[in-house]
Amino acid sequence: MYSFLKTVFYYFFTMIFRLKIIGTEHIPAHGGVIIAANHISLWDPPVLGAACLRSIHFMAKEELFTIPGLKWIIKKLKAFPVRRGAADRTAIRHAINLLKKGEMLGVFPEGTRSTTGELGKPEAGIAMIALKAGVPIVPACIIGTNCLFKDGHMFPQFIIKFGKPIMIKEDKNDKEIMEKISTTIMQEISFLLKGGER
Known about the structure:
Layout: H1 2-17, E1 20-22, E2 33-37, H2 44-51, E3 57-61, H3 68-76, E4 79-82, H4 89-100, E5 104-107, H5 125-133, E6 137-143, E7 159-162, H6 175-193
Parallel strand pairs: 1-7, 2-5, 2-6, 3-4, 3-5
Antiparallel strand pairs: 6-7
Helix pairs in contact: 1-2, 4-5, 5-6
C-alpha cells in the first residue's frame, strides 16, 4: 500500500505542482538515516515521501491519529504517533529502533509548522535520536507547499532540496553536543532555503 500511495502522490505532485527534486544523491541508498526538513504545511510529509526513493517513516502528532480517515492514510504511509510538548520516550525508542534496523526516518526539527515560513528554533530530540542510533542526518528544505491558494498562487511549484549528510561522530549525548548538532541542522536547512546547494 505504501508503494502505491507513494506513486500516486508522486505523479499528482509532479503533474499538478511541477514537483522539482534536487540532491537525492545525498540520501544514502542503505542503512539508517534521518531526513530533517523545515515544516510549513500539512502537505510536507507526503511531498517529502514522494521525493525519496526509499520509504520513509514519519513522526506525526498523536492528534492526527484520532481522525478516522486520516489515521488510516498516515498509518499506511508508515507514520507513528508522538506526543508534543514533552519527551515521548515510546516514540523516541521506536524511532531509534527503526534507524538501527536500517530504516529512514523523517523529522521536522522545529516540532511544529511555521506559520510565517521562517525557520523556528529546533527541538533537541532529533540530535538525541541521531546520537543514540549512530546515523547521519540529511538536511532538506521544502519550498512552495505553504503557498497553495495564497496570494493568487492556485498551483505553486513544490521544490524539495536535499543537502549533504551531517555525520554524527560524537558517542555521547550531553546537552552541548546536542545543541551543536541541532544548530548545524538548522544552518544547513537555511542554506538550502536561501538557494544554496552542496
